[in-house]
Protein: FAD-binding protein
Amino acid sequence: MDTLTIGDTEKLADALRGDLITPAHPRYDQVRKVWNGDINRHPPLIARCADAADVAAAVTFAAERGLPIAVRGGGHSVSGQGLCDDGLVVDLSRMRAVEVDPRRRLAHVQGGALWQDVDPVTQAHRMATTGGIVSETGVGGLTLGGGIGHLMRRCGLTVDNLVEADLVTADGRCVTVDATTDPELLWGLRGGGGNFGTVVRFGLRLHEVGPTVLAGMLIYPLDDALSVLPHYRDLIADAPDVLGTILNLRLCPPVSAVPERLHGSPIVAINVCWSGDIEEGQAFLRPLRAFGRPLLDTVAPMPYVDLQRMVDGTSRPGKHYYWRSVDFGPLTDQVITTLVEHASRITSPMSAVPVYHLGGAVGRVPAEDTAFGSRHASHNINMFGAWEPDQDDRDRHVAWVRDFSEAMAPHSVGQYVNFLNDEGTDSVRAAYGRRWRRLVALKRRVDPQNLFRYNFNIDPEWPDEGDT
Structure:
């Protein structure tokens, strides 16, 4: 990295309509914060861009001076990819506009938008696309890495609905990428992460959804999990695509949707979203809701936007987070036993073990159509460690996550890139599998200097020999 001068900094500040934040700025510590409080980095420059021209100016400035770039959209990456210690942060948090083209069934979403910006706008047209489980999640990071959400079995992953993008490339050009202008680059954006530039606008396909869905949660004591989970497994085996479910094994969080008497108790929750006909959903879910001794059943017709905010209180910004993830096949008895055993050893009331039911539309997309790597998995598990900033036992929480991950490793059929943390290049490569060579070739074409390296990085200098 070349040494920055005061003149350099002033030149960039003059080129921006937005703000340039340096360590001398009074709001520097506030601006550099990201969702995961465990990340503490000190970038020399943060360009809070107002528009695509600002992004182009910032990228050009960094390229000319050999500064690596970290792109910050929602800032929700657990590994803190939106921050760096030695480069320029391109901060898109001011760029959150959302517009809907109802004729094309397309949402135009700026690169800094959160899902809470998107869902109300698309629902005004009775449409939606697969979005994050937490409404504070950034659209950019979720989309570029894959995009798990309540609607994925019906509508596909978010990445499957990315049909075009405005992208600022490593040479400072703003280009529109679609299946006509650059199909290979569009392929790479569909799962290849932030390796190929800064997306300033996403064009996302919309589907008829809502405004009312059948949704909510069933909560059981964790002690009942060994009987509840096999019953759940049998029900979802024949589930139509309009049913999305997420298991969650944890200590019951202190949120308003749950009675205070349950707060802190070990539970298994089944979160449900039926986006089809409500009466058909009531009939299909009846055997699940009638089983066992649920502590709570909140499944009812509700606005889709309320579902998208339902668990927001369980992952607040500023807490410290560490996680691992595994894609796996069927929910076998052995897997269920492993889940329950390790969830019973959970180390924090803020930690959780969400298990996402994949399949449906996710599994029907041909494996080579996108860079996303786990089309054949049936489930994804995210071992989610969380603790308060003032706690000094980080190692204990991290150890629980790693032990859980190792116990699930024999069942692994892949990994979800967006849920990687600090596993390193080999895990990134393994997550992409046979798509790796193709991604490296694309990286060499559009970012040969690896300017965009603060991501799950695809190194353009990766040797050709021995690639799989």
The chain has a mean pLDDT of 95. The chain has three domains: 6-91, 98-208, 212-419.
